Amino acid sequence: MNPSSNPLVAELVARLDQTPLDGASLVKSLSEAALDVEAVLGAASFEYDRYVRVSLYRSAAVEIRLLCWRPGQSSALHAHGTSCCAFRVLTGRALETRLGRSDRVLEAGSVGLADPDGVHQVANIGDEPLVTLHVYAPPLPIEQPTSEEGHRVVIIGGGFSGAAVAMHLLQSGRPDLRVTIVERGPWLGRGLAYGAADEAHLLNVPAASMSADPAAPDEFLRYAHQRGISAAPRSLLPRRLYGEYLVDRLARVVKQSPGRLRVIAGEAGAVVARGDGRYAVSVAGRMVLADDVVLATGHADPVVPAGLQALVRDEALVADPWAPGALERIPSQSDVLIVGTGLTALDIVGALIRRGHRGSIHSTSTNGRWPREHLPTVTWTGAPATLDLARAPATVDGLVTWLEGACASATDEGKPWQAVLEAVRPHVASLWKRLPVAERGVFLKSHRSRWEIHRHRAPAELLLQLAAWEAAGIVTSHRGVVTSASRRGERVEVALGSDHALTVDRVLLCTGAASDYRRTQTAPWPDLVASGFATPDPNGLGVVTDESCALLGLGGPGLWAIGGLLRSRWFEVTAVPDLARRAEAISRGIVARRSPFAHDGNPTKAVDRAL
């Protein structure tokens, strides 16, 4: 059949000949054209290792293609260059993943328009074949998609850490890379930290230190300037802006890389060793092959304290206040208790008040202390504090005394205590590694909360606002552990210790990140721990890895971890500067392990850069 004179799409071609070839016109033509769907489906063709493109019509100005997908097949994330693309689902069920925008499901008969400047992916998420009819103006130069064979890397988790590893892999220039991100949340690249839509939620690290690429340290700052934002290197910019920067950067890398990146929406289950040096990762009932698996799962699901277990299935308990719609479901007149007084709790208090919350807001924690303040300049601009690291003890109590002495010396020199914290920060990992396991446990039990309120600071103006809210009776801070909670009619009575109780309508859990993988039920960790592939830290801080971020366990080479999972070795490794360096290191390690497996059993050859 000659695609230039195909009767299957004759009416569609006639409509296209009479309209401008812009997005709206393509959508209108695809929606209104009377197609013999059964006849068009007769031209469909399918393969096992990739989806198939069938050209139905082509001219200098426009091309019409039939795209045919078996269940589970998808395109890679891609852009269309100068071409405008609209598509219609003829049969099956499609999921369109769009960078920077929410995913959308398209049923048979639906018509979609690919963002001309964006990056997207189409996948068959049904149990039956998916066939879509695409119009490109002008035609695309690529005939068939690239095979999924190559060096397969599966990244479990699509927040900052997972996206950073993917970006560094794609920037390596390896055309044989087939990277798949498994993401259960709505924001690829943003995760919980940067998916928040509240403009008032600020980063806690100065803009000049927030680049996703250690080789370009001012990249985020330049992005802010390009967006018309007057930002200084020490500015604390909105987290939402940072999320937009990550999406923009990922899109640019996808467009430029010869490697391919796919996304699977869903939750990863078991990670199984196949016996041939590769792994299989279960996702939504199918197995995805991998030569390397990167665990970038972020924080484990929040652990509900023992005192709140009675509310686990009660709407009164908001276990994850960052979940989409969580704050919207809290009546504005309700009295709430926020469990926790860290940075998360501070953000949630502000978010409630900006939403017009009229009920009372209580907060409680073991010590009842909020974060300490940043300097007005955020970072110390004077002469650095001096530390004699050679004299740093290898016991926790000794380290506390040593650090207190350094702060006292700095004060005598006219320097703030924040300068001492900044001076010790680059050495935290080495100091942590010197501590025996038992000493680390002492720190976590007796000193961690004090360290964190000084280390993870808040803008001074935000703390002044909190003080004003407390003075006005809007916010009341308590000191005490929640020992029990029970229903009292429409409300909840919460006991704080043995001699104090509150009656509220909602309890919000803001106790910070969960990191104890000895107990978590968040997939895929129960199976990873049970199989011995992952070894949980004995103090409940992530999992045990080597210096290259490879898991130490029974799984063999090719299993990597990033993010809070690395706390066991480095303790503090969740800030963007640390994560960006770890992502780069993992990428180098994976590339060095270039897979010997290919469809024909030979080392993978360079392939064309198709979608």
- CATH level 1 name of the largest domain: Alpha Beta
Could you tell me the radius of gyration in angstroms?
27 Å
Q: Which secondary-structure class do the elements indicate?
A: alpha/beta
CATH architecture of the largest domain: 3-Layer(bba) Sandwich
Shape: globular
Weakly predicted, low-confidence segments? 595-610
Q: Number of helical runs?
A: 17
Beta-strand percentage range: 15-25%
Tell me about the biggest sheet?
5 strands, antiparallel
Number of domains: 4
CATH topology of the largest domain, by name, is FAD/NAD(P)-binding domain
Helix content bin: 25-40%
- Total DSSP E strands: 24
Task: Give the averaged pLDDT, no decimals.
Answer: 91
In whole angstroms, the N-to-C terminal distance is 25 Å
- Please name the fourth-level CATH homologous superfamily of the largest domain: FAD/NAD(P)-binding domain
